[in-house]
Each structure stands twice: as structure tokens, then as C-alpha cells.
């Protein structure tokens, strides 16, 4: 099966392309910028294509002969829908590395069409949301009667440009949680609490992470919140932003903030990625019981590379029933534990 990395010239796409080549894989590298895509393909000795996502005929030609796309060109709020539509028409498996709630919802809504096309649709094949989705599935297996789920992570190393732009978009949309099985909008930094890591207390706030969508699909647990660790001063600052309300989502403000990202954000260096870890917590409650699990993983971008390529290799080697999947539904709850540098911490 021929397969493609679209957005291979971006920060994360480039990391995935280089690791794929080291594994002896032969992806087609693709994107919108001919100069940077060709340069990377020449460096790695891989085939390449250039096409944009705003013309269906261009996408149809770009996907000719391709059986699987790993889509890495964000922000996915703008790029996921057209790429997925092209994959449905071309009968091409669709994977991406999004963490955006609305993108997960859109992909899930195409489940029946994916089945008719005979393809797998799996958004969130990277750090968003492989480790947290697997953590949720492991907790559900330990506590089948779980009624609430809390997931949290402490990640170091900084953002890529694409992730930073998605975060800018999130400022205008507010927070998300799931309550009684229904997605609900809540204010930014709606709740705060603490978690323990290596004997130290970490403050954290709720964020609209993809698991408020995907963990419900994976587990059926009706109440879900996701937290990330930040200093108390950051929580206070973000809560003050609530007063700006709709202004944060105003197109000129969004454009200004994204230009700042393009100018200032480069993504963590190889040294930074190697020196930073991510710590994850999961808590499930129900029936008067509680189960907790904790994971350590490499830097989130390093995990994205191995997690996404592991799913690609699985689909290249195995036949899966068509339709929409979360990572744990396709790969199993323990999939994250098979990735390099991932370990389960002792139960607290």
C-alpha cells in the first residue's frame, strides 16, 4: 500500500518523515509548499507531491494511488474536513494528529460514509490523544461501572507552530467538558485542582482537550474533564481573559495572534525534546469505587512520531473493519505501553 504524509514539511510532519525513513518506510511526502516539500524529499530520498486543499480536482490527483494518508497540516479546523472528504472519495484511510474537539466530532459523523468507502478514519493518532485515550480505556476496564473520568497531563518542552495556532483558536471558543454524556461549553480555566508528581504538587486547569470527545466514544463514561498543569498565575491570567469574551474569537484578533505565532514559535529543539518528559494522570469513579493510573512518556512530539507511525504500520500490515476509530478502539488499551519510553507508574 502506498501511503502519504501530508504536511510533511511542517514541524511534526518533518519529524515523522525522518523517523519513517529510518524505519525503512517509503511514504510519499506532500504539502502545499513545493520548495520545502521537495527539499525534504530530496534529503530523505523519498517521493513527493504538491497540492493544496482548496480544489477537489487537485486533491483527487494528489491522492491517486495512495491507500493511506497521515495528515499533519494544521490547524485542523481548516484542513481536516477537505482532506477527509478527499479520502472518502478516493477510498483512502485517513489518520491525523489533531487534538481539536470539533475535528473529532466531524470525523465521527462520517462513520457510516467511512464504512461505505471501506476505509479507516482515525483522528488523534499522536500525543493528542493516544496516551490519554489508552489511559481512559484501561481505567474503564478496571472499573466498568465508572461514571466520571478525569484525565490530566504535565508536559514540558513548548509548542510547535501548529499547536500554538490551535491554542489561539481555542481562546475564542472557551472550554469543553462532557456532562451526562453531552458536550458542554464552559469558561476558560473553568475548574482548577492539584495533582501529585514525584512528591510535588502541580496545579492544573481544565482545557478543551480532545478526550472530552474521544474518551466518551472509547469508554461510554458520561462525565469527562481534562486538565493540564500550569502555574497558578497562568490560571488567574487566563480567567481574566474571560472578560474579553467574543473579542478573542474575532477574526482580526485571531489573525494578529496567529501572525505572532508564525513569527515567534519554532517548536522544541531536538535537545529539548530529548530532555523533557510528559506525565499523565487518570482517575475514574463510580459505584462507590475509584481507580487511578499514572503514565510517563517521552516529550509529546516524540510520542506523536512513534504513536502515529505505529498506527500507520498496523494498517499497512493488517486489515481493519472500516469506520471511525479512536486509538484504543483500533490498537487496544495497552497500545501506549508498547511505545518507546512509556511506562506505568506505581498506583498512588
How much of the sequence is in beta strands? Answer: 15-25%
How would you describe the shape? globular
Q: What's the CATH architecture of the largest domain?
A: 2-Layer Sandwich
Instruction: Tell me the helix content.
Output: 40-55%
Name of the CATH class of the largest domain: Alpha Beta
Kindly report the spatial arrangement of strands forming the biggest sheet.
3-2-1-4-5-6-15
**Unreliable spans:** none
Q: Can you tell me the CATH topology of the largest domain?
A: Dihydrodipicolinate Reductase, domain 2
* Category from helices, strands and their pairing: alpha/beta
DSSP helical segment count: 14
CATH superfamily of the largest domain: Dihydrodipicolinate Reductase, domain 2
Average per-residue pLDDT, rounded, comes to 92
Number of domains: 2
Radius of gyration: 19 Å
Number of strands: 16
Secondary-structure element string: EHEHEHEHEHHEHEHEEEEHEHHHEEHEHE
Q: Main β-sheet, in a few words?
A: 7 strands, parallel
Q: Cα distance, first to last residue?
A: 44 Å
List the helices and strands and how they pair.
Elements: E1 3-6, H1 11-22, E2 28-31, H2 34-44, E3 48-50, H3 56-62, E4 68-71, H4 76-90, E5 93-96, H5 101-109, H6 111-117, E6 120-122, H7 130-142, E7 148-155, H8 161-171, E8 175-179, E9 182-186, E10 192-197, E11 200-206, H9 211-219, E12 223-229, H10 232-241, H11 251-264, H12 270-275, E13 277-286, E14 289-298, H13 300-317, E15 323-324, H14 327-331, E16 343-344
Parallel strand pairs: 1-2, 1-4, 2-3, 4-5, 5-6, 6-15, 7-12
Antiparallel strand pairs: 7-13, 8-9, 10-11, 11-12, 13-14, 14-16
Helix pairs in contact: 1-13, 4-5, 7-9, 8-11
Amino acid at each position: 500500500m502506498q501511503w502519504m504524509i501530508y504536511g510533511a514539511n511542517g514541524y511534526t510532519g518533518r519529524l515523522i518523515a525522518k523517523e519513517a525513513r529510518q524505519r525503512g518506510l517509503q511514504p510519499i511526502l506532500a504539502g502545499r509548499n513545493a520548495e520545502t516539500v521537495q527539499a525534504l524529499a530530496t534529503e530523505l530520498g523519498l517521493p513527493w507531491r504538491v497540492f493544496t486543499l482548496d480544489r477537489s480536482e487537485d486533491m483527487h490527483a494528489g491522492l491517486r494511488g495512495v491507500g493511506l494518508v497521515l495528515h499533519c497540516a494544521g490547524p485542523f479546523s481548516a484542513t481536516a474536513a477537505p482532506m477527509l472528504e478527499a479520502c472518502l472519495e478516493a477510498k483512502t484511510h485517513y489518520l491525523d494528529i489533531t487534538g481539536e474537539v470539533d475535528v473529532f466530532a466531524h470525523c465521527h459523523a462520517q462513520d457510516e460514509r467511512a464504512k461505505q468507502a471501506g476505509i479507516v478514519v482515525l483522528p488523534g493518532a499522536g500525543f493528542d490523544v493516544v496516551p490519554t485515550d489508552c489511559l481512559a480505556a484501561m481505567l474503564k476496564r478496571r472499573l466498568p461501572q465508572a461514571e466520571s473520568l478525569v484525565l490530566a497531563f504535565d508536559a514540558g518542552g513548548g509548542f510547535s507552530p501548529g499547536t500554538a495556532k490551535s491554542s489561539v483558536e481555542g481562546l475564542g471558543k472557551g472550554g469543553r467538558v462532557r456532562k451526562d454524556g453531552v458536550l458542554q461549553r464552559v469558561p476558560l480555566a473553568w475548574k482548577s485542582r492539584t495533582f501529585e508528581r514525584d512528591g510535588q504538587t502541580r496545579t492544573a486547569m481544565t482545557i478543551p482537550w480532545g478526550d472530552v470527545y474521544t474518551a466518551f466514544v472509547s469508554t461510554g463514561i458520561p462525565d469527562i474533564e481534562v486538565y493540564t498543569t500550569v502555574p497558578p498565575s497562568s490560571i488567574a491570567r487566563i480567567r481574566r481573559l474571560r472578560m474579553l469574551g467574543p473579542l478573542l474569537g474575532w477574526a482580526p484578533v485571531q489573525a494578529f495572534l496567529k501572525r505572532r505565532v508564525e513569527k515567534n514559535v519554532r517548536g522544541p529543539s531536538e535537545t529539548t525534546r530529548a530532555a523533557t518528559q510528559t506525565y499523565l494522570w487518570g482517575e475514574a469513579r463510580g459505584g462507590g469505587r475509584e481507580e487511578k493510573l499514572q503514565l510517563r512518556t517521552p516529550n509529546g512530539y516524540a510520542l506523536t512520531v512513534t504513536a502515529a507511525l505505529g498506527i500507520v504500520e498496523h494498517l499497512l500490515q493488517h486489515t481493519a473493519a472500516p469506520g471511525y476509530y479512536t486509538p484504543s478502539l483500533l490498537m487496544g488499551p495497552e497500545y501506549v505501553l508498547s511505545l518507546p519510553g512509556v511506562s506505568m507508574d506505581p498506583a498512588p
